[in-house]
Amino acid sequence: METQEMVRVLALLSVIFLVAGCGGGSGDASDTAQGEPGAGTVVAEAPLDHLDQALRDAASSARGMTYRSRSGIDDDNTHVTGSVFVPKGNAPDGGFPVVALAPEVNGTAADCAASLSPNLGGNSGTVQELLKAGFVVFVPDYQGLGKPSDGKDIYHPYLDSTTAGYVIIDGVRAALTMVPEASTSWAALGNYQGGQAAWAANELVANYGSGLELVATASLSPIADFEGLADAAMAGTLTPEQKLIYVAFLAAVKNAYPYDFELDDYRRGNAEQHWDALMSCNESERMGLAAQIGPDDLKPASPEALAAIRGYLQKTTLPQGPTDAPMYVIYGGRDPAIPAAWTDSALTRACQMGDVVQIAFWPDQSHQGTSPVAALGWLGERFKSIPSANDCEAFLASHKP
């Protein structure tokens, strides 16, 4: 997007997301704190008039919202933005089913939010397909991305799986408020970081999703187990794609733990010099800068620093616990950021927890080749109460240590 157009969109959304009161304390999604509405409450809403015409034409309604959610790091009440689309036609008996489409993150600056882009950060086509299939579609921006109505600039806790899961669940609850003709039956679908968010929501929903009926989640090339980034940084073997993930994660940890985490133990040289630009929304620029980062520029300064960052990675890697609904995981064998072996490890642990997982491994694909549209048929069957296949027994048999 050109700079002038981005400024126009930011200004527009700053106006239409009307200013509301600040957030209260923590609690589950139905709680209130200090008299404030709880997580999942819509704070402000307005039309998304800046979207591509084809996307607006595909929906009977396209609206942006600010809603309350919850931090997975400190349980703070937060304001998050997202987009809600309603299909054309009359709702079926029981209401329109809902799909939360968790997008890939295209930079961690506030203006990298999907809702600020005319094509929803490249997700317009998937949203249109979901609308054609009769789903209400909710697209979150994630905490720290977008322009919430309270006007506060908060950081994006990149790859904090608990926060991402809360954002999904609370956003679905908020979407039901905006669309009375929607059903409480819902699913989550996501690619890459969004795949992590969908998976995390499935783990959290049993204790956090009161009043909602999760039927399934689909995660395509999910960033699930990424603990290996620590050792790769120490060895100086990070790929350019991994460098971008690692840098964004380091920045998020510093924001979350400003007094406990010494960022300069993990960055130097070109990484430090171009730090802010590495968070930008321009993917080609970020990739170019990542290629300039030397093998020692992101190396932990000591064994103690290595152990510390490994601990932070373990804190958010998936699985953290069993899932509540069937899960579909599609991943490729040629992903330069998340090796298949890392996803194999996550799936092994998930299956050992008793999860129901249908697994598709595409050996010649990277995460760019795993479009969310590939999971639409599978999700449709789950809404029809058709039982999911469970590949865990065969997967565990073929992935013995």
UniProtKB/TrEMBL annotation:
It comes from the Bacteria. InterPro entries: AB_hydrolase_fold, Lipase_secreted. One of its GO terms (molecular function) is triacylglycerol lipase activity. SUPFAM superfamilies: alpha/beta-Hydrolases. GO terms for biological process: lipid catabolic process. This is Lipase.
